[in-house]
Design a protein that fits this description.
By secondary structure, the protein is mainly α. Helices cover 86% and strands 0% of the residues.
């Protein structure tokens, strides 16, 4: 008998809490990403800006930004270097995230199997987390998960181009008629944004289920993606409800914790003083820390819920 979406979410939450060590793993991942991003800015972007005479602190108007872009375009070799550097950093980000996700998926799938199908029971029956178990899954699965992300989001990127290419063509064709060019550009951008929201949502479901499919069956990336798509088509209702619930919870929580910064920014605008800025820094930091923890919990809950669906399908 299939569980309803609420029961799936409840099992996912139980597994997330029981294996809360994975939340710590995700927080470490966030810190590593932040460190890499700061290092990239210090090593790549700032030296290039200085070399072409751009002072970031003085860019405050559209004319300043235009002047900075012109300076960069005059030295296009530097732009190529920036593009290559950012591409490498993005690949590193995806590889690290794949490593973390593969390990987490392995733990959640094992937790589901060990806990058994019973609807009632102690939350501790899901507790299987250990650094060794997580690391084994991460080491074995980061490469398939890496290609799951690359293939799925590569397909999504191609779909994003469908409205962008006609928009660009129409804008170029009607460049002598500003009103038509602007209208077609605006319509094209609206359609693109709407398409990105829908495709991004579907791709997120696809990759999440593919990752737990890999953890459950140890299949290659292509097979995991194919099985994932079929699983979602067979059981669209529960997959969709779980994903929507996670997005609603994520938006609500992020909005709440972001309000810490909003209050601080509003107060700063009212007082416009360095003292007030310093005084509200702890409030901003608290909001940022709790938002990171909340995001880690929601990401873990989402993966654990899909792990429940994947293990249930295996037993059917």
């Amino acid at each position: 008998m299939k569980r309803n979406a609420f029961d799936v979410l409840r099992r996912g939450l139980d597994s997330t809490i029981a294996n809360r060590g994975l939340i710590g793993v995700r927080l470490v991942e966030t810190l590593v990403f932040a460190a890499i991003a700061v290092l990239t800015v210090l090593v790549v972007l700032i030296p290039i800006a200085v070399s072409v005479g751009i002072e970031v602190t003085r860019i405050s108007t559209p004319d300043d930004l235009e002047s900075a872009m012109v300076s960069l375009l005059e030295k296009w070799i530097l732009l190529v270097w920036v593009f290559v550097a950012l591409a490498v950093v993005m690949l590193i980000f995806v590889a690290l995230h794949s490593f973390v996700e593969a390990g987490c998926a392995r733990v959640y799938v094992d937790a589901e199997r060990i806990a058994g199908p019973a609807a009632e029971g102690e939350r501790t029956r899901f507790r299987v987390f250990s650094v060794e178990r997580w690391y084994t899954g991460a080491k074995d699965g980061w490469w398939p998960v890496f290609w799951i992300y690359n293939f799925a989001w590569g397909v999504a990127g191609l779909i994003f181009l469908i409205p962008l290419i006609p928009t660009l063509i129409l804008t170029l064709v009607f460049r002598e008629t500003p009103a038509v060019a602007i209208a077609s550009g605006c319509i094209g951008l609206v359609v693109t944004v709407m398409l990105m929201i829908v495709v991004g949502f579907v791709t997120g479901m696809w990759t999440e289920r593919a990752i737990v499919n890999w953890a459950a069956h140890r299949t290659p990336a292509s097979a995991a993606l194919a099985d994932s798509w079929q699983s979602i088509k067979r059981d669209l209702g529960r997959h969709l409800l779980v994903a929507v619930a996670m997005i609603v919870i994520a938006i609500a929580g992020s909005s709440f914790f972001a309000s810490f910064s909003y209050f601080a920014a509003f107060g700063q605008a009212m007082h416009d003083s360095t003292v007030f800025t310093i005084m509200t820094m702890p409030l901003r930091m608290v909001g940022m820390i709790f938002n990171s923890i909340f995001s880690a919990i929601v990401s873990s809950w989402y993966l654990a819920s899909y792990a429940a669906l994947a293990v249930e399908d295996t037993k059917v």
